Amino acid sequence: MRYNAFQILKQGLSGHKGWKPMWRDPEPKAEYDVIIIGGGGHGLATAYYLAKEHGITNVAVIEKGWIGGGNVGRNTTIFRSNYMFPANTHFYEKGMKLWEGLEQDFNFNAMVSQRGVINLFHSDPQRDAFARRGNAMRLAGVDAEFLSPDQLKEMVPILDFKNARFPIQGGLMQRRGGTIRHDAVAWGFARGADSRGVDIIQNCEVKDIVIEGGAAVAVETSRGKIRGKKVAMAVAGHTSQIAAMAGIKLPIESHVLQAFVSEGIKPLIDTVVTFGAGHFYISQSDKGGLVFGGDLDGYNSYAQRGNLPMMEHVMAGGMAIMPAIGRVRLLRHWGGIMDMSFDGSPFICKTGVDKLYLNGGWCYGGFKATPASGWCYAHTIAKDEPHPLNKDFTIERFREGRMIDEKGVGPNPWIQ
Fold this sequence. Notes:
The chain is 29% helix and 26% strand. It is of the alpha/beta class and 416 residues long. The strands form three sheets. Strands 1, 2, 8, 9, 10, 11, 17 and 18 form an eight-stranded mixed β-sheet that branches. Strands 5-6-4-13-14-15-12-16 form an eight-stranded mixed β-sheet. A two-stranded antiparallel ribbon has the order 3-7. A hairpin with a 4-residue loop joins strand 14 and strand 15. The protein is globular, with a radius of gyration of 21 Å.
């Protein structure tokens, strides 16, 4: 069923009784050409592009829970491509271009809003660093704009420009960045993949990866054994656990990252703003709630919940740049599990086990990378070799000293 204005009118006149489920609920087959472990944004996007770009439709996406219930629905919905290093710049810009045409591509309203992303700076050295990043972006053909304090005051007057400790000296803006409804991204990719013949198998937990002759040949699940000619991992914060089933130890630590939503209020901020002297970022949803987050919790965990000290830390960052939100009530908060790599960059590659593929180590950048990740991962699986956009995102880069350390913080995942 195609979604369009005519369908809305037709279904409205018939009492909305003709809508069909967005995807099937099939029983798993005995064997598939490709098994994708993980039904989040990256797994579903991979299945979608395998079918759309490479004609591989005998694909199973295996999800432990339900579609949209994992990390893809536990983030602050921001997308951007404001990176400096070439490997990241070109990869995330591919994602940006896919985001811009995504809703028309998979015929689903994901509420893409290119409202702009502004990174504030508060000191002379930080200004110089942002100028360097902006220049690198423009040299790569990516939009970047340097904002003066006066321009910022006109765009975001609610900011505290008189803060003595963290004076706002300007900002770096990417106007094409913005926000998207997170779970709608999962639903759209699921619907698009299903319409091309992909089986989406929910409530199916992977218990083990079967290795025969040095190759991955099947997965043991809570719904039985499923054979696959190729097996691909896309499980976000549980990457190290699933990889361990195949005897692979990864340079990854899992941490909780909290996000928050306030009560609905009148329009206050129509862009995305990030605090440069701390880790805080904020936007406003279409329902009026302020959506914001900050640093991850500094301990390893697989719990999808946070703690009070980090809540206080995030709120302090918000108050430093936007004290007017101090009287707004918090509506809810939650935690997503981040698989933090040691240089802050991801993996999209083959593994040491034949026919087993890895997508993980996304740190803070997983959601905004969803379409580019799926597009590149599908190419890697279908062609059995990386695309030029993900050729640097390998495990081997740590052995070879080719880290993609965008933030320059070194091998300390707890301070990424």
